[in-house]
Amino acid sequence: MADWTYAEALREGLRDAMAEDPRVIVLGEDVAYGGPFGVTRGLKEAFGSERVRNTPISEAAVVGFATGAALAGYRPVVEVMFMDFLTLTLDMLVNQAAKYRYLAQDRLRVPLVVRTQAGVLQSAGAHHSQSFESWLVHVPGISVLAPSTAGDAYQAIRWALRQPDPVVVMEHKALYGRRTVREPAEDVAAGWAPRATRRRAGQDATVVSYSAMVYTALEAAERLAREGVEVEVWDLVGLSDSVMDLGLVAEAVQRTHRVLVVHEAVRTGGFGAEVAARLQELAFDGLDAPIERLGAKASPVPFSPPLEKAYLPSVEDVCQAVRDLMA
Amino acid sequence: MRIPRLGLSEAGGRILAWHKREGDPVEVGDVLLELETDKASVEVTAATAGYLGRIAAPEGAVVESGAVVAWITASPDEQVHAGRPSPGPEAPAVSPSPHQGATSGWVRASPYARRRAAELGIALAGVTGSGPGGRVVARDVERLARGSTAGRWREAVARRLQATVEAPEFWVTRTMEVARWIAPLAQHPQVTWTDLFLQALAVSLPAGSPLRPQPRSPSGLQVGLAVATDQGLLLPVLALPSDLPLEAIAERRKALLARARRGQLQDGDLGEPELVFSNLGMFGVDRFMALRDPSAPVAVAVGRVGEGVRVEGGAIRATWLVEVTATVDHRVADGAEAARFLQQVARYLEQGEGARWSQG
Questions:
Q1: Do residues A75 and A119 make contact, with C-beta atoms less than 8 angstroms apart?
Q2: Is this complex scored with an ipTM above 0.90?
Q3: Nearest to B111 among A284, A324, A327 (CB)
Q4: Which CATH architecture best describes the domain A197-326?
Q5: Residue from A12, A128, A264, A274 carrying the catalytic annotation
Q6: pLDDT, tens digit, for every residue of B126-185?
Q7: A59 belongs to the catalytic site
Q8: Distance between CA A88 and CA A275 in Å, rounded?
């Protein structure tokens, strides 16, 4: 297989983890049938309905159940169908799963993995399109990953299932079908960790992004290159304090002196604010312009296709923000 | 007292010398300082009478056009507070409020520009910002630093010539007969072939002609003279009314060249040329193509005036010839227009009623 899709990579990550470790179980709405995007397709057939379980539509109950299972020694992977409904699980995640190891002085661990679908795709509407990563990264004890490539999606699952603490893997609906080149098997071995990765080199400005917006940034970089502006694009991959290291990005800023952070979440209070704050701490005297942030408009995600398009940062929005930075 | 906008020079320059000291009385027109720009050294004169109150930019400082370099006060003992971050030990009797002092000394600059300024030893107060809202950004500091160390004119020449290289250009050459000028020029040793060609150009390029669609100055055709000096190539501008007699052209041209060679060009010498003139005939060059300045749609290159032959009706006739080559910006004019321009020049030189002399 020369390339694979994001969904295939996630499935393979789950399959390999389940084959290796009998403690890994998969829970969620319709997961036994493959889930809404087919990620868990075939797992029930391969590992049985004890380990791949459909659950009722009660996200709080499922994550609570999974937290208990994790405390009892399992490594549950819960699929929360749409990040929008992660809101229903927050008490379990924030006040239970993220706290047990601390409260129990490391005698208890919650190796819980939550897979959830974020982002805008084809008019899923105000309740099925949101990106809530900035709520999660605010809670110490939860790791948040937002892979953009199939390779990182595979690794994110494998890495998450080796952690002693809860990990939320933000999957983007628009990425499931995206094919990327499959790295050779040896590169897929241990040693992967979520770290900022440069997806494109350039010396004029640094664009920092993650998840699906990486591709918007890359497309913008190509357009800007035709205008003579070479932009480098960084993909953060890991977002929470536990996994984010902006050292390399800060070094890049010392070369380019200009930074734009782009994400799909609403700009105000968005994760870009954290990135901007950290980069100015790390590279203050390398900045030749204020760090720019680009995110979705301050609005519920519109259902109307033209409005939905206008809501998100576009390739041209990224280009214009970079042009403004270069002014 | 600010550094004025100096014609071609976009970016100010380096203060070579102050000609007045703090406290000296100043009359309008007094030379206050000498400024090395990317084209030449320029004397900057006072536009206001009074007393030189405080010098803000010392000799050697690199300053942008518009930068405050000194204050001229109404009385000799008036204190100048503006632009001083703190009063210091020599605080005047009436101190400015600390708040006022603090804000007026603050320069809007990016963090990286501050770091570069510190690394390069550039005073931010003398830099004009090109960033949003006038913010000083790193490129402003680096541009000044390059100018202060490597000689600004070389960078400027390179930049301006680069700009013309990117323009669509063409060249038109015409051989002109100048035998009828041998004798008159011999009688007026102070007038040179260059002066004659300059007059021919001034006459042949009236305002509104295709190569001079919008005259830039009422003082006549603005001709940039390519001058080789110790500092390199300079391009001071000579204003040529079309009725200026040859002796006057010669006089003005020599004065301009002398100022250029001494590095003492004045503000008025540094305008934007409408035509660049270059004569390499004295070096024995037959023909060459001159580079334009971006502001000039045409450059005229004149080669050696030498003996040659013309064939007319099968008869060979010995005469004196010169090759004149025009470099033309194709965005301004086309080939036929350029050819007609050279035709005008040739007509003036070959058949004109004769030169305009101030006397017999």
A1: no
A2: no
A3: A284
A4: 3-Layer(aba) Sandwich (3.40)
A5: A128
A6: 788 888 888 899 988 888 776 544 344 555 566 666 667 778 899 999 999 999 999 888
A7: yes
A8: 27
